[in-house]
């Protein structure tokens, strides 16, 4: 997955944890706008989320962040 997307996921997770608490859950779509303006990136992240990490639709933000940081 692109480094720019890894950075964005970490930022979004940090913001959600700060505003909603340690147990906040996020869906895969939390990291994208409501427009499909970069389908290649969407598929890249979807593959990482579903195939590589085998995550459910909703996961804890702290879990997502730790997976992204460990998978660098």
From TrEMBL:
Highest taxon listed in the record's lineage? Bacteria
User: InterPro entries from the entry?
Assistant: DUF6500
Pfam families linked:
DUF6500
Q: What is this protein called?
A: Msl2237 protein
């Amino acid at each position: 997955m692109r480094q720019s997307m890894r950075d964005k996921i970490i930022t979004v997770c940090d913001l959600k944890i700060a505003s909603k608490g340690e147990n906040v859950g996020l869906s895969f779509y939390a990291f994208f706008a409501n427009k499909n303006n970069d389908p290649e990136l969407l598929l890249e992240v979807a593959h990482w989320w579903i195939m590589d990490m085998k995550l459910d639709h909703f996961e804890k933000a702290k879990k997502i962040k730790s997976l992204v940081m460990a998978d660098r």
